[in-house]
Write a structure and sequence with these properties.
With 277 residues, the chain is mainly alpha-helical. It contains 14 helices and two strands; from the N terminus they run ααββαααααααααααα. The chain is 78% helix and 1% strand.
């Protein structure tokens, strides 16, 4: 491209180029999923059953108490729906890609990606899409709508848009931390155990923040911000978010987590010597 091309034009063309690439990756993912329809449907059923089990467990708890801290039963159901929605969107877009990074390093397939004329982290992060995650995310939305009806909530457009934006920020937190952990594979070769260990921590995001005290609350707020990622968006919908500090904290943690993951990625790439070396 000529050097005198305005930077705004170059940026616009770059975005369109990456959007075209991502749409092509989506098309390939659809073809792959449709080639194994039984597996696609089976995992949707498994995730639905697991979500139903989570809801059942919470109903058992509330059969013995009226509140957990300041959270009523249907407010916690709203939290479960929000947590499930965020987790499943993350799963659909990023989970498979993050967990496969160690295999790319071990098998040398990362060498091929480094040769592509696109950002390597972009290709690693977005090359596959788990379409079942979007279906499962819809079940989280359905539970949130039902809980909202039980609470007689009528959220306005500002709350709905705010929830979507906060959910996107929460997904960014999950992606940044999991990608950072996946980058450990440049040192250990196999890092799936570490990555899946973090994924299991998603269960903490389903719990109301009132259930935590002291060190654990501080750790899961500032070190690994699991309490924030679902509680803050859910609080916005149920009207428990009366001041902006929680939103600013979630936004700040997303920036910090992404910056640390980018630093870890660049440090890992400087160490990488390719499979042929």
């Amino acid at each position: 491209m000529p050097k005198d091309t305005p930077s705004g034009v170059r940026s616009s063309r770059g975005w369109r180029r990456y959007l075209t690439i991502y749409l092509a990756l989506w098309k390939n993912s659809v073809v792959r999923e449709m080639g194994f329809k039984a597996n696609f449907l089976l995992w949707i059923v498994v995730e639905m059953l697991w979500f139903a089990l989570q809801l059942s467990f919470m109903f058992v708890i509330y059969s013995h108490t009226d509140r957990i801290g300041t959270w009523s039963k249907w407010q916690v159901v709203m939290l479960l729906g929000a947590s499930h929605f965020i987790q499943q969107i993350f799963t659909a877009i990023f989970l498979t890609n993050c967990t496969q990074l160690s295999e790319l390093v071990r098998t040398g397939k990362l060498d091929f990606m480094l040769l592509l004329p696109v950002n390597t982290r972009f290709m690693i992060s977005f090359r596959q899409v788990d379409l079942g995650g979007f279906v499962n995310a819809a079940s989280g939305v359905a539970v949130m709508i039902y809980a909202g009806n039980q609470l007689r909530l009528t959220p306005g457009w500002a709350q709905v848009i705010g929830f979507i934006l906060l959910a996107a920020v929460s997904i960014l937190v999950h992606y940044s931390l999991m990608f950072l952990l996946a980058s450990v594979s440049f040192w250990t070769v196999r890092a799936q155990g570490i990555v899946w260990g973090y994924y299991n921590l998603f269960n903490i995001a389903r719990l109301p923040d009132a259930a935590f005290r002291g060190f654990f609350k501080a750790f899961f707020t500032f070190a690994i911000p699991m309490i924030l990622v679902a509680n803050v968006p859910a609080k916005l919908i149920v009207g428990k978010l009366s001041s902006p500090p929680d939103m600013l904290l979630l936004l700040g943690m997303s920036v910090v987590c992404f910056a640390v993951s980018e630093w870890g990625w660049r440090l890992s790439m400087r160490r990488y010597t390719s499979a042929s070396s």
